From TrEMBL:
Protein name: Alpha/beta hydrolase
Domain Alpha/beta hydrolase fold-3, residue spans: 66-263
Annotated organism of origin: Nocardia jiangsuensis
Keywords of the record: Hydrolase
Domain of life, per lineage: Bacteria
Keyword Hydrolase: yes
GO MF terms, alphabetically ordered: hydrolase activity
InterPro entries named among the record's database cross-references: AB_hydrolase_3 (IPR013094), AB_hydrolase_fold (IPR029058), GDXG_lipolytic_enzyme (IPR050300)
Amino acid sequence: MTPTTLAEAETAWSSVFGDGRLPLGRLRRNLDAMMSETPVPSSVPVASDTIADVPCLRVGTGTRTLVWFHGGGYVMGSPHGYRAAAATLSAALDAQVLLPDYRLAPEHPFPAAFDDATAVLTALGSADTLIAGGDSAGGGLALAATIAARDRGAAVPSAVLAVSPLADFTASGDSFTTNVGTDPVISTRALRGLAASYLRGHDPRDPRVSPLFAGFHDLPPILFLASDREALRDDAVRMHATARAAGNRGALSIHPDACHAWTLFADLPQARRALAEMTDFVNGALP
């Protein structure tokens, strides 16, 4: 059943993780199953593609291109599971959505996901109609890849959308403590587990894995969205403050009645409101 209330959405998230001791293969299947409960409209084209040797799915049509990096803590998630979410984004943003199938840990630890993300953005090059975005780990990955492109002097997207971005592997935000009882997805303990799989001892303050610690100068407009109830709220809040201090024309939207990555549940009224914000932001950011 596709969630239509916040309680149902949180129950859906809880069903993915079970008792917290499920093997990774089961977690991956659970996440894709939850994501696939919403059907993809038959009128929406879905096609396989390869960009810079990275397998991708192209979903929908439009005058823009949105590269959307899926969530899943760098260990779960897939373009297949994100097809319905991509179809919703495509219709709202007038964009063909490109879903990179970046490599996952622990089979492929850092920098595999980062390398795949930067390769895709680099291959797409410069376009006024190019947007980058993602949710959770995908939001952090979209930011890290965009920042890396800027640092290389390469073309960057015209706008970035970061939903509940996982952007600080040190878990230093106050919301990890204040929201410990209201987030069924992310916790300090869970983040340590993800770090063990993805980072394998790599510095968690490296901006390529924790863009919170990057410079935000000379970047395209960034829209940060987060729930007031989630552990990652302060990742978005602090990055937005840094970006604004650097002159970024972006925005921050904190939703008090949402959960982690709530935009994935298209039938939630809260998701529709967030999607409208994303649409207005992109329309204002792009030429």
